Amino acid sequence: MELDIRDVSDDPLVKQLIKYTQNKSYFTFNGYFFPGTFKPFVQRLLDFEVFEDDIFVCSFPKSGTTWTEEMVWCLENNLDYKTSKKIALDERMIFLEFSSLIPEEMQAVVPDTVDLAKNSPRPRIIKTHLPFDLLPRQIATKKPKLVFVSRNIRDVCVSFYHHCILLEGYNGGFDLWCELFLKGYAAYYSPIEKYLKSFFKADYPTDKIIYLRYEDMKKDLTTEIKRTTAFLGKEIADEAIPDFLDHLSVKNFKKSPTLNKEDMVESANKHCSKEISDKTGFIRKGVVGDWKTHISDDYITKFEDLEKLVYEMTGVRYDLQ
Q1: What whole-number distance in Å separates Cα of residue 84 and Cα of residue 257?
Q2: What crossing angle do the helices spanning 174-183 and 153-168 adopt, rounded to 10°?
Q3: What is the pLDDT along the chain (321 residues), one digit of tens a residue?
Q4: What does the CA dihedral 247, 252, 255, 257 come to, rounded to 10 degrees?
Q5: Model-level pTM?
Q6: What sign does the dihedral 144-149-150-155 (CA atoms) show?
Q7: C-alpha dihedral over 20, 110, 279, 126, to 10 degrees?
């Protein structure tokens, strides 16, 4: 099927995003919003070779991806905390389309992540934020396991805002960010309602995909660990759970250079011409309900309307606190 690619750089709201970030152009690909740097990669991503023993960790950005990645990697690698502390998560699990999202001037100094993922030793665990309908096409026939994690859209919006300040140099303020997010122009992968529908309504074998929710993981991580362990066909002893919970804690993530992505943040900041105002780090708070400190009453009704739409499209509701 041919892709529907549209240049939306002249949209007045997108022009505001361009003004306040490093990207010079934006397109939609089958309705999903991406920077112009994505265009040369999209066909390679669609044609990426998939194997039956692959595991893809999938999510909209800032939905608990890093947390889920580390959980899956540890379960697949016999809780090897020593290697986890020594080798960065992004080296242990390649972010498939990362190269397609960074400025062209950085692409010359950053390894091509599509090639890195292609050449990773099997069985591979691959991270992606691609919507279901832009995943590599061979997924439809090879049927690898998909671990999908999602989060309430208010906290996603807030966390994505801080992410884009930290890594994109965004400095247009939170009100503009809310407008961009609600209209489906938030940096990349938007609109979130279309994205979530792509996974929750995906035509995919139920034994090959597990749906995790950030809020459930915060409420009862032990149960979600056991669900994921069973899905992956692994085992974990009850006596190993306490240490695993400690390893997966926000406190541990924030102090761990291999999990807090310090090298990536430093590199992004060096290539960003604007002063970075958010110094909180890649792992920020890891809580449910942080939206209350950011989203004003003026926007609550708009988010409620979007949440109703998400429910109508997916049948899924999220805890907000």
Answers
A1: 10
A2: 120
A3: 689 999 999 999 999 999 999 889 999 999 999 999 999 999 999 999 999 999 999 999 999 999 999 999 999 999 999 999 999 999 999 999 999 998 887 888 889 999 999 999 999 999 999 999 999 999 999 999 999 999 999 999 999 999 899 888 899 999 999 999 999 999 899 999 999 999 999 999 999 999 999 999 999 999 999 999 999 999 999 999 999 999 999 888 877 777 765 555 455 455 454 454 444 554 556 677 789 889 999 999 999 999 999 999 999 999 887
A4: 30
A5: 0.91
A6: negative
A7: 100
Q: Do the beta carbons of residue 102 and residue 37 sit within 8 Å?
A: yes
Tell me the catalytic residues: 129
Secondary structure of the chain as H, E, C letters: CCCCEEECCCCHHHHHHHHCCCCCCEEEECCEEEEHHHCCCHHHHHCCCCCCCCEEEECCCCCCHHHHHHHHHHHHCCCCHHHHHHCCHHHHCEECCHHHCCCHHHHCCCCCHHHHHHCCCCCCEEEECCCHHHCCCCHHHHCCEEEEEECCHHHHHHHHHHHHHHHHCCCCCHHHHHHHHHHCCCCCCCCHHHHHHHHHCCCCCHHHEEEEEHHHHHHCHHHHHHHHHHHHCCCCCHHHHHHHHHHCCHHHHHHCCCCCCHHHHHHHHHCCCCCCCCCCCCCCCCCCCHHHHCCCHHHHHHHHHHHHHHHHHHCCCCCCC
Q: Are 188 and 33 in contact (CB under 8 A)?
A: yes
